[in-house]
Protein 1
Amino acid sequence: MAMWNPWRGCHKYSEGCRHCYIHKGDFKRGIDTNKIIKTDNFYAPAAKNQSGGYRIKSGQTVYLCFSTDFLIEEADSWRAECWQMIRERSDLHFLFLTKRIERFSACVPADWNGGYDNVTVGCTVENQDRADYRLSIFKDLPVKHKNIICQPLLETIDLAPYLEGIELVVVGGESDRNARPLDYGWVLAIREQCMARHVPFQFRQCGTHFIKDGRTYTLRVRDLCAQARKAKIDLSWDGA
């Protein structure tokens, strides 16, 4: 696994961004998150060591722009170089998430055609309104590997109309002392939708405020992922 953030900074874009941990962390450090700038890591996939080999070893998944959005407008003039490096590193698999899926067609290179084999796109949704808007676009896009990310999940969502061709659905809660609650029933409902269509499912993290069987629990942020794993409800898909 490798991380690649060719730029930093982002803008809050919808309800799911309200308690964004990037904005909170930047605020504590006196950094303006709304300023989008290139990072020193911009050319990381193409960087080589003294012996001439790539610093990022072959065969890895590269998590792209996980502290920003790969499709953000301010990066339009830089993105072509990123696509060039992604083409060059066909031995790596690149994964990025976006809340700006409506910009996708304007942001892909001329040779995208049906999509690159080494790119997975995750469309992030947090409620039914954003699911219906973003996923109605996403389902028709030429992308070879598609994920749906429901994190933070803010209400029950019907994903059933949008699951064809999806390789993974990820669900998680919000991690903040002021976080909106995550109801376990919402998580299980999405799992049932995935199970019915043999779509892999992952419960990635509980919410700080977690509702189960009508009772609300307040969990420590450091325990959220571990608590989700303890539920043992992920689907791989061999049905288990």
Protein 2
Amino acid sequence: MDIYPLSNLDTTVNRRVKELFIAQSDRPTVLNDISLARLSSFHRALLVADGTVTRFIEAYKLSPVQVVLLSQARRTLQNEHIWLGLPTGGNIIAREVVLQSPSTEFQTPKIHAYAVSQIVYERLPEIVVEGVDAGIDGLGVLLQHSRLETRRDLLWWGIERATGLPSSIAYFEGQPFLCRTYRIVANGKPLMLITEKFPLDDS
């Protein structure tokens, strides 16, 4: 992926956006820079959104969005996880979903986002864990319904050419995605680490 140079016009805006992401220097090496001016207004808004992404996309697109569960499993960490504050042996739920428009008689579903989450379920209210296990709603909606007070720590962002995707969205292999990673924190403890990937052909 080419690294697009920043123009003088948007250097200040890029700097302000980067200041929102507290661990940009720790981002994975597969992520590259891009000038915000090269992103659509839809993607710029998604990048800094700190609310429920599903609801934001529905409002922007004026169309319902489905959360489709691709995989979900409980796992034990083989190594310490700094961003989740968990030691080796900690328990998480690993979850993959896509956010898509509903299919119709004349149109196949359009993918708006692919999200990978690591969830510390032992720190969550039981009602949220039950919702995660059901796999119907997005994580943001589940947290809203629980009325748990949380904050989002934006960690890093960049552009990535997708590889190793689930078979159901393998047709996106090699295509550019806008990616961001953040964690959700409550009572001083991380609850989830979420990476969202947005296809750049969706605007």
Protein 3
Amino acid sequence: MKKKHLAHSTENYVRNSNHILELDQTIAQAICRVRERHSNTNKPYYYVLDEKGHLIGIISIRSLLTQDPESPLKDIINTKVHKVESRESMYAALAIMQKYHLLSIPVIKKGIFIGVIEIQEYFEEKIEMSSKVKRLQIFQMLGILVEEGPTKSLWRKYMHRMPWVFCNMLGGILCAVISDFYEVLLVNVIILAMFIPLVLSLSESISMQAMTLSIYLMTHKKHSWKKIFLYTFMETRLFFLIALTASISVGALSLLWGHGVGPAIVIFVSIFSSIIITAIIGAFVPIALYRWRLDPKVASGPIVLMFADVITTLIYLSIGFGLLL
């Protein structure tokens, strides 16, 4: 499917589904129906319709197998179903599927179930859904589509992204100003200048990992804010171990240049402290943006990188100046 087709109604792309159970069935009768169609389905749930074809709810295969076979099906169905009207656009359907990680979504017309929209509709080639990683990649691709929308102009997309790119530019300018302020240090202790790219890349990498985890928790895990903060705090133990390993490794490596223990200590302390600080910033920036009703998936990266570069440069050169000059 091409992007220009996303404005078309779902009715044009709906597919018939045989993953249907009847509301007046017992669980035993429903299980028999599932067994009859087992060879033709890999779906974990079935749609439940009443005698007029109205979509009443869904039920998982697991629920069927763990309940009393003589119980009525209507007693255990889940009536909270994400669905779309046939007049709604494919973009609306895919947006719901991306938000709730659905592989398919039912389509109704005046309350009557008419079929389903499969996530496969958006992709030209056959995709394999068995891998969890592959599924996440697919939903991330749909997420980009949903964020930008099918009708946004090039200018609107530019205005949506460019302000955050200025954060990177601002970070670079501030780093240049800081480096100029410590020019004497960089001229006299040349090894510190040599290790600036490595020190920066370590902070940037860890802060981006922390940011990615934070965004994942907010968008894929239905945790309370308290649990997200607690989980992020617990992750500081991992940041500590990574910082310790990286700082010892790079600090020891710097001794090979023969500039003495002083620069090695500066590199060790700088890497350790900057990784801890920027990792915490990377974890909390998406949370702050989300609370301020800004898009964390678009804005977090540039902001986190700006803070990581500026803070790491300032820590690195300040410690070097204090210990070596």
